[in-house]
User: Fold these one by one.
Assistant:
Number 1:
Amino acid sequence: MKKISFPLIVVLLLCIIFTMIGYDTLTLRKESQKYQELQQQNNSSQTTSTVSNHSPIIYCIGDSLTLGSQSASYPTALSSLTGFSVNKFGGAQDQSIDISIRMGKTKVYVNNITIPSDTTPVNISLYDKDQDKVDALKGTGNNFTTVEISGITGKLKYNSEKKTHTFTRDQKGTEKKITKLTQIKAEFPTFDSNSIAIIFTGTYDPQSENGIFRTITYQRAIIDQLKTKKYIVVSLTSKRKFDIVDSMNTVLKEEHKEHFLDFRKYLLKSGLKDANITPSTQDKKDLETNLIPSSLLKEDKLNGNSKFNQLLANQIVQKMIDLKYITEKDLQS
């Protein structure tokens, strides 16, 4: 019998994965096309990065798992371990598309609204450039609270009960009728070209049959906007949220290759031991079903606790060393 080549094994594995997660070819093609268009737009635009020769800045980009509380988030632990400047960027319960929007890579628009002359809130829908509705910007984050629409500054808010966005102008003025796609503008961040980016997204992305490919599309957009080749993409961790999380992580690893940090695999194998935690009865039950041990999670069983965040910071530091982004000498003694 002839030996099967490694590339063929990879292809077969991916085919199995695609089948498992219900890969939708048509939808993926549409998402990929949108990303390619985003990439072309960026190539023709001015770079947002700045040149720097100082110690690297670490940007931790993600949702509430990244933002956390100031004392318990993994970026805080990362700052203590490295002594580098660590900045957090994202929003509470942000999807990957939300972060791409907040970074200015993915643009959102309004259409067919009238902004009144007074400060009465007006209901708005968010659209992409193809006039498809965009389900995004539902949580608070680094930006997109104060926005500008057709030269009028105001506040963008989301009402979770009514499931609608509103725009409220800051000052009274002339009534403005908008009858064509008009971009919602905000203050967008700039990133140092000597930076290292830690991307931890996807936990709040839709659980659709092609969800992981949508996540990858916007992770690509985020990476492209950062203008740095030094980045790490952290795996998804929660099987409680995604039953097929291991298959999803396999696809993420295939996409990001050496930049991928399989934090979930580490937690299942060594998390409790490295955190000096004696497994509880619940922890043992969790591990038997490939769930992250409860002793490493908050009560919601989704967000990590202080032990989780410290372990993640440790793993990120080791990954940065492995990728030669930093050396042991760069770390604080």
Number 2:
Amino acid sequence: MADPQRILLAGDLHMNTLAAIQVIDHAQTVGADLILQVGDFGFWPRGNESGRKYLRKVDAKLAASGLDLWFIPGNHEDWPALAQVPVGPDGLRIVTEHIRGIPVGYRWVWESTRWLGIGGAPSIDKHLRTEGVDWFPDEEATEAQAASIIAAGAADVVVAHDAPLGTEFLRTRFQQDLEPWERQTWWPAGAIGQADEHQDRLRRILDGVEAQRWFHGHHHVRYSSTIAATHGEVQVEGLALDGASLKGLTLLVDGDGARIIVES
């Protein structure tokens, strides 16, 4: 496949077939060459007919539209099942004919721009879930993975599920100036602390690879922010989730990760 010139980024889909189809239709409307989804795609094939049906329907829609979809694994995916999906010659996991999974730390180049994929995030709601059934310990990007990613060298654009620590928007939204137990939220303080630690780990990756742009989902809100890193200003874009408007759920960019303005 030739390097795409128009990439439609899409936020969390959570196995929502209607939302996925709307994204694919929108990709056609804006002339996208590829859909790049930022996690919580909805990969739940084991013992789940709804999950398998979702994959079949999305793949069929992609085929009919002449598009492929790559996804970053979010925390809400079946991680053990994904680990069993074969990896193709290009290093991507072959989920279906038109759907590819991006392994943690996977790198690729479009033209001369270096892209990096980082899946995972801690499930802040794991106390409501069952380990090994609907949440998995390997859902987080680990310290070892972070060290390996940094050691592999620079990347211009990062596509991740989680955000790096340091955006003013998320600092304010999640009261990150306060200790976890001081924040006005009903989520467990331990889970909040773990979420902060994961964002800090990703921030170290951002600094280590000297990223210029960072795209992510996970926090379910569309926003644009910047981080004043030591290597320069980094643009951070968060995407919304299924049920949000396409304006919040998607973002069209070029092969350098620069936003393409879509006429409304």
Number 3:
Amino acid sequence: MKDPIRFDTSLPRLVASLKAAYPGDLATTEPIVIRDFEGRLGVILDINGADLEGLNSAVAERLGPYARSEDPVRGRDAAGVARIVAEAQTAVILNIDGVNLRLLDRRIVGADWMARPVLEPGAVPRVAFVSIKGGVGRSTALSIAATHLAQAGLRVLTVDLDLEAPGLGATLLKREELPTYGVVDWLVENGFSGTDGAFRADCIGRSSLLDGISVVPAFGSQTLAHPADALAKIARASLEDMRDGTSLSLREQLQEMLSSFEATGDYDIVLIDGRAGLHETTAAPVLGLGAKVLLFGINEPQTFQGYAFLLAHIRERIQGGTNWEENAWFVQAKAESWDAEIAQERFNALWTKEEETLEKPEKLGPDDLELVWADDDEPAPLPKDPVPLLRILHDERYRSFNPVENRVQLDERLVQSTFSDLLEWFDNQLELGK
């Protein structure tokens, strides 16, 4: 019995079927592959009508359920194809089994993960705090950074994009300081009743912890007063909006929201708390807001597996993805005093790209037979320069972080002993003290 085709093998199987049955030269045609919402594949390439039927049959037979149900192969001159060909010019080029192709990956959710990253910063610097798992102290670190920057005289706007497990509102604001609305309300109302200046003001809470800290929570007091509506609003918050017949993605809505706050001229920096995990709502703070990105993780297998997925996707599936890496830093959370060296090696190995460390001959010849291949058990080569790694030390005094009730947690000596790497990074980025 033949091995069944699976999602992971569908693209290589498509390429194999084209190699076997396409009458032209695949090296010069650069096929355009469309993967639909369900995962089925179709391909557009240069082919005349006489050869089209046979190639369609071959591809359908080899791909089985992963072939587009009607005509998986179309020529570039077919009806409606010109628009797709134009769209594909901005799609990433993949090399699969020696064939270069452009992949258009259609998604019902997660489409923001496919958009080209926003690399240019805006007039107001943004920093996004992101993690693969919750419980790593990401929101605590953001709050500590906010107080540090406010003490330096900066006007700080903190924005909670962790819509399903929010924390900034309760951490930085007293109950009576909570604004009427929050991010969820903005994302719901911008497609209905509108978000004017008055509504914007009703989304901002002023923290009494320090002058200069403002908070846009995930939820405001209105949701706390009507808790039964919270889940209904969450379900609608991440949907695309329709405006003048054009869809507006979540990242575009969040860009509009942040730009609206920044346009007031009231803030010197924006700190964004992203959702943990690889959900579609994480794509905006990671890729779509022009922010510097702090990738939080504990020195454990789940961290490296999750970030391996994320980095591979950005590098291999997004045009301009490798340039995004200039805006990203790893933060080792809950670091122990004894694990600095091994953690650095593991983060280095995660960041290392295979194509930069392994030299592979294009084809084997007589002179290649004497090559001595490295043992598979040896660790992957590390970058010449260690990947930048900020360490936040494990500190039981921050297990339960509630500075509104326990201001001792903001004591400068205590903060510096635990968060000094992170705070020094902010000082350097913003050139504080110069």
